[in-house]
Design goal:
Elements lengths: L2 H44 L4 H14 L16 H16 L12 H12 L1
Helix pairs in contact: 1-2, 1-3, 2-3, 2-4
Length: about 120
């Protein structure tokens, strides 16, 4: 049997694996590029005192600690389109590019999320 033919399945498996790694890296970069600016915008909104600010704040707290801050998905219905899209971009980033916990993207993020929690009571 030809030696090159024997190595073909291994090479194909390695190439397939490398392609999957590259695809995952591309997805990670893509979701970070959309999710990080969305996170900044959402955090700024969450500091407010409107109904939408409360929804965004509870969403962020749910990502931060879902056991302590469960989030009712139906509340997304009350968000403006841009805020909803930002929440989806952030959720995608948190699910697909889990680089660090949500509060760790901010300097003094623990204090920021503690303030969000205090605002929610």
């Amino acid at each position: 049997m030809n030696r090159n033919h024997q190595h073909a399945p291994k090479e194909e498996a390695v190439n397939s694996f490398l392609q999957k790694i590259q695809a995952q890296e591309l997805e990670r970069e893509t979701v970070l590029a959309a999710g990080l600016p969305a996170l900044q915008r959402l955090a700024n909104i969450a500091k407010g005192d409107t109904g939408q600010a409360g929804t965004v704040r509870r969403f962020l707290l749910g990502l931060y600690n879902g056991h302590r801050w469960p989030f009712d998905l139906t509340t997304f219905r009350g968000l403006d389109r841009d805020l909803f899209d930002d929440c989806m971009a952030l959720l995608r980033m948190d699910a697909r590019a889990t680089v660090k916990e949500i509060h760790q993207y901010f300097k003094n993020g623990g204090e920021l999320f503690a303030a969000f929690a205090q605002m929610e009571g």
